[in-house]
Amino acid sequence: MTSTVPALGTRTAEGSALQAVLLDMDGTLVDTEGFWWDVETEVFASLGHTLDDSWRHVVVGGPMTRSAGFLIEATGADITLAELSVLLNDGFEQRIGRDLPLMPGAARLLAELSAHEIPTALVSASHRRIIDRVLKSLGPQHFALTVAGDEVPRTKPHPDPYLAAAAGLGVDPARCAVVEDTATGVAAAEAAGCHVVAVPSVAPITPAVRRTVVASLEEVDLTFLRGLMTQMH
Q1: Is the pTM of this model over 0.85?
Q2: Domain 20-30+99-231 classified CATH 3.40.50.1000?
Q3: Lowest mean per-residue pLDDT among 56-60, 72-76, 162-166
Q4: In terms of DSSP bridges, do strands 211-213 and 195-198 run parallel, antiparallel, or are they unpaired?
């Protein structure tokens, strides 16, 4: 976990202000959810197995231990979880080295949060080695703190990553806005007590209490995120 925490310029006496924004990475800020599936397909093809496209919804957004473990069990591939994790991370790192498209609205949102000095954290189920590569494209200066999936006892859908991010920033999870693209990430953020903006990437997500669903990050700006704090306490 890396951290350089700025002053909290958004805390107010009544405690109703937005204190921090916590952002997922794959499928939320960078258009990489499809990359993971492509790499998984290629790796299993090299092992002599074909992945069923219906499994994509099972593995999206989860920790590698869960998704890789599911695929080993589903295919019966003769490989350990540790061995497969290395192959998947290697393949993904090569893939993002060739091309790493940002999601529409991502660069604008990060720039706006930085300009207004809103404490911002990147919270991902991806491993540290992957996050550090992606940060080169996103701009590490936009984040006060980053939390990787291999740095917490339990990753998404458990609340641990978002609780760790809020603690690292010194903020109340209930005054944090989280932006996520999968049901797994949404579950983690909601379990931590955060307000959630869901931008579905692969599978649909339905609106709920403290959960707003939008079609694109282009609909999300600082005014929108601050408005969440006044809704549905």
Answers
A1: no
A2: yes
A3: 56-60
A4: parallel
